[in-house]
From TrEMBL:
Protein name: Carbohydrate ABC transporter permease
Record carries keyword Transmembrane: yes
Organism of origin: Scrofimicrobium appendicitidis
Subcellular location: Cell membrane
One example of a Gene Ontology biological process annotation: transmembrane transport
Residues passing through the membrane, by range: 12-30, 78-100, 109-130, 136-158, 200-219, 239-262
CDD domains: TM_PBP2
GO CC terms, sorted: plasma membrane
Organism ancestry: Bacteria, Bacillati, Actinomycetota, Actinomycetes, Actinomycetales
């Protein structure tokens, strides 16, 4: 069999990748550019494309703004996003393992039903969900943001597809022959095998929970918000200082950038590992 020789990508491939990278980086630079200037810079048609020297001042205005409650909002976002990510990964992997490797009556119908719920807009459940949390006294608490997001239909579908392709049935049967229970088989065989897909699901879920605005804006009090809700209060005045607003937006992305810096290598390694296994 003829051995395939990989050739180095041509120059235009790097050119396309560089253009895509610049396209993704431009919104961040624009936010930093406006966030480093005064309130009137965005309305100046002759504005310089070089950053100004007011970013730290604008960032301080966000952090010290009593209406924003920045540190409380930051903690609420970190706490809720991390808890939601861990819960979604665990329950999605557990359900995905059941659909992929366990044989029980109605499994296919139930999986189709779970996938079908993805077609239902989340906005349709806002009113009954708010009434439910109002009756149990959870409105205004961070628990009302966390509990509805503890599971994910997309996560179940994602993990089901991955485990079906990655874990051989013979490996599951071997664990059962050795006397392992269903949960022990999942814990020792399924969970380690699901690590690449689980890492991606955790990152996507964390980012989605971090950026969630609609439901937290409805159910939380302004004194105890998440970070996106708190930053929206910067636009509540008659005059909106967009330099301060965009400085706050950049501050809200710093935890996500730190997360990707520390987990990016594991994410890429997980993708490559899953590709080799597949």
């Amino acid at each position: 069999m003829k051995k395939h020789v990989w050739s180095r990508p041509r120059w235009y491939v790097y050119g396309i990748l560089a253009a895509v990278l610049l396209g993704f980086l431009f919104p961040y630079y624009w936010s930093f550019l406006i966030g480093s200037k005064d309130a009137y810079a965005i309305r100046d048609p002759n504005m310089s494309w070089l950053p100004g020297g007011n970013f730290l001042k604008n960032a301080s205005s966000v952090i010290n703004n009593p209406a924003v409650n920045f540190w409380r909002a930051l903690w609420n976002s970190i706490y809720s996003s991390a808890l939601i990510s861990v819960s979604v990964v665990f329950f999605s992997t557990l359900a995905g393992w059941a659909f992929a490797k366990l044989r029980f009556k109605g499994s296919k119908v139930l999986l189709v039903f779970v996938i079908g719920t993805m077609a239902v807009p989340s906005q349709l459940g806002v009113v009954p969900l708010y009434l439910l949390f109002s009756q149990i006294g959870w409105t205004g608490t961070i628990g009302a943001v966390i509990v509805p997001a503890l599971t994910s239909a997309f996560g179940v579908f994602w993990m089901t597809q991955y485990l079906q392709q990655t874990v051989p049935d013979e490996l599951v049967e071997a664990a059962r022959v050795d006397g392992a229970s269903s949960f022990r088989t999942f814990w020792t065989v399924g969970l380690p095998a699901a690590r690449p897909a689980a890492t991606m699901l955790a990152l996507f879920t964390f980012v989605s929970a971090w950026n969630n605005f609609f439901w937290p804006f409805i159910v939380l009090d302004p004194q105890d918000p998440t970070l996106p809700v708190a930053l929206s209060l910067l636009q509540a005045n008659y005059f909106v200082d967009y330099s301060v607003v965009l400085a706050g937006v950049l501050l809200s992305t710093i935890p996500l950038l730190i997360l990707f810096v520390f987990t990016g290598r594991q994410l890429v390694a997980g993708i490559m590992q899953g590709a080799v296994k597949g």
